[in-house]
Amino acid sequence: MSSTAIAHPNIALIKYWGKADERLSLPATDSLSLTLDIAPTRTTVTLDPGADQHVASWSGEPMTGRELERVSTFLDLVAERAGSRTRAVVETVNEIPTGAGLASSAAGFAALAAAASAAYGLALSPRDLSRLARRGSGSAARSVFGGLVQWHAGDDEGSFAEPIEAPGLELALVVAVLAAGRKAIGSREAMRRTVATSPFFGAWVASVPGELDAMRAAIARADLSAVGELAESNAMRMHATMLGAVPPVRYWNADTVAALDVVAQCRRDGIEAYATIDAGPNVKVLCRPEATTAVADRLRAAFADVDLLVSGSGPGVRILGPAA
Ligand code: DP6
After folding, report:
1. Over the chain (324 residues), what is each successive 10-residue block's mean pLDDT?
2. How far is the CA of 288 from the centre of ligand 1 (A)?
3. For the chain: N or C, fewer Cβ within 10 A?
């Protein structure tokens, strides 16, 4: 009747940008990410046989409007699969505020998929849990697993994530929180606009398979420099693609560009560091675990009082067991 799950955000090294099918949340390309060990989301789902609608809260605040609608639609899907008409109460707690840009829908829907499927009595394999989480938010399919993860494009059956073996490759990420406000345009709408209007979108879709092959090969030989170069280049290409939309989608601000300069200077000074940027102005710096202090010092020197988060490779979603 009640179940709690915990999931971590993930950061893509080969990005997901654009859907092939909106309803089923099928991506236009494969993507590849690192699950983090910071900023977990903990979600409890409790079935409420007396209720006539789903209720959800985020860190104690009731969810309303589009947010609640998205969660309710997802719960309807889980209930339908379980052959149940019972409504649920969802309580979600995040370790860091949503504004930091890491309290992502990936961790949120991975935790919700795990807690809701358990509460409704569905025993899903990790693969089927990933397929389910995908329906809440595409990138949530990847947060079901820990470490490096590849999410496959495909049809409803074939589009799931799975972990990648990465012996000997240790990755860390320094997140520079450059702007903590809500973003101007949500990634869902921005993707839609890119697919519909950017003349570069076809080139993006055509280039990702080759980048993925190169990334898989770099991971297999534990080549951090190649992993970093490929990740930075892929992030630039994703932003180039959306800058080509009409009207353009630009998430960067002046600090974003300044942070890219800091990362480039790190490399010139012999600190291996590579940047990636998602649907917001914050810059995430990929490096070896032993380089995080040097990278953080450089960022602090460039941005007074900047919030920095340091992460290593984190675990997949975990069900903490029935609460009652
Ligand atoms: C830029 O997974 O949030 O972070 O499927 O519409 O919920 P929806 O989108 P979402 O998009 C993530 C976009 C990205 C790149 C990535 O994580 O691969």
Report:
1. 96 98 98 97 97 95 95 98 98 74 85 98 97 98 98 98 96 92 85 98 98 98 98 98 98 96 98 97 97 98 94 97 60
2. 25
3. C
Q: What is the Cα–Cα distance from 101 to 106, expressed in whole angstroms?
A: 11
Domain limits for position 21: 2-166
Query: Does ligand 1 come within 6 angstroms of the Cβ of 139?
Result: yes
- Tell me: do 40 and 78 sit in the same domain: yes
Which atom of ligand 1 lies at the shortest distance from residue 278's CA? 1
In a domain, 43, yes or no: yes
- 41 plus 151 within the same structural domain: yes
Atom 6 of ligand 1: nearest residue by CA position: 188
Helices 65-81, 105-119: axis angle to 10 degrees equals 40
For the Cβ of 25 lying below 6 angstroms from any atom of ligand 1, the answer is: yes
Q: According to the 3-state scheme, what is the secondary structure of 7-26?
A: ECCEEEEECCCCEEECCCCE
CA of 12 to the centre of ligand 1 (A): 9
- What separation in Å is there between the alpha carbon of 139 and the centre of ligand 1? 5
Q: Are 51 and 89 in contact (CB under 8 A)?
A: yes
Model ipTM over 0.85: yes
> What residue owns the CA closest to ligand 1's atom 1?
278
